Each structure stands twice: as structure tokens, then as C-alpha cells.
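Async update (no meeting this week)

Hi team, since we skipped the sync, here's where things stand on the single-chain job. The sequence we agreed to prioritize is pasted below, unchanged from the tracker. I ran it this morning and attached the output directly underneath so nobody has to dig for it. Comments welcome in thread, and please keep replies under the output.
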Amino acid sequence: MAKSNQKSDEPRTLVIRRATAYDVVNLAKMLIAGLEEQAQGIWYPRVPEGDRGKMMSVKYIIDLVDRAVIFVADLNGRLLGCIGCSVDRYPWSDDWMLSNEWFYVLEKFRDSDIAVALLQAMQDFADADELPITGEGKPRFAIMLGIVSGKQTGVKNRFMEMQGYVNGGGNYVRAPQYGPQQNDDSSRA
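Output:
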């Protein structure tokens, strides 16, 4: 039986979803691609160059998949971007926050809305009243992102400000959101 050279008629669908253990290899490949862009200053966090850095990246991802909140942009099985945040407490308060471990979109997809969609997924998780899988109640989380963007600081600053973040001296912070937003004029009498 001959193999067909025709492309599938299935539409290509971008899905933003929580990462699973099955994504570790593809996350590692994506973040190693980010590591290779290190000279441009956009890799976060810093790891050594070469094979040692790649192995540290893989171990780091494996350790985080079980204990962090990670969202991926999945286009029919291909990961185009990801954002990962650890759950932490502020040292000076009892409030919880999501603190970023990485936020990366493949270079040729950076002109799309993938970064916005990944950030929105993390914000939706931070603002949810309950955990998505167990249905258990949880606190609302502030989000703190330390983003390195090389020489594109102005672009990064505008992007984060448009998303509602405040520059806190190297990190971008968004307070937890409580309750529905009232955007209509019907509440004014």
C-alpha cells in the first residue's frame, strides 16, 4: 500500500493547555532552543553553555512539571511556546504568588498572539477560585514575572504594561484579581 503525499484536511488548531509529563521532552527541546539564543539575552534562567547546560535544563523541567503551573501552546502536537510558574509565598507576607520560571515562544511565532494567550492562561489560573483538576478551593495568586528580553526592553515593557503588569524594578507584578469586573455603565445611577 502506497503512502499518500496529500496533507490532512484537518484544520490546524492551537490549544493552550496545562503541560503534562508527556510534554517534558518537547519542553526540553524548546527551552534548549531558548538556551541557544542566550547570546541575545532572552533565556531565563541562566544555565551553563553546552551539554552540561542542556542536561541541567532537562532536569530542571522534569523537577518542575510535578510542582509548578506550566501552560503550553500546542499546535497539533507541536509546542510553540510555554510559560511556567512556581507557587511561592512573598517573604514579607502570607499571600501566595506565581513566580515565573520561564516564558518562551519560538522565535518564528513571536509575532502571533501566542505570548498573550499563554499569559492569559496563567492569569486565569491565578484568578480561579478553585483548582482546575480537583475542584478544591485555593487562594487567588499574584503573578511576578522576571522577563529577560535582550535589547528589546521597550517592547517588553510595553507588552507587560498592556497586559496590566507594573514594573517593580526588574520584575513585572500583577495583583490577584477578585470578583467580576464591572465594565458597563449600568452600575452608575
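Quick observations from my side:
The two ends are 73 Å apart (CA to CA).
The chain has one domain: 14-179.
Reply here if anything looks off.
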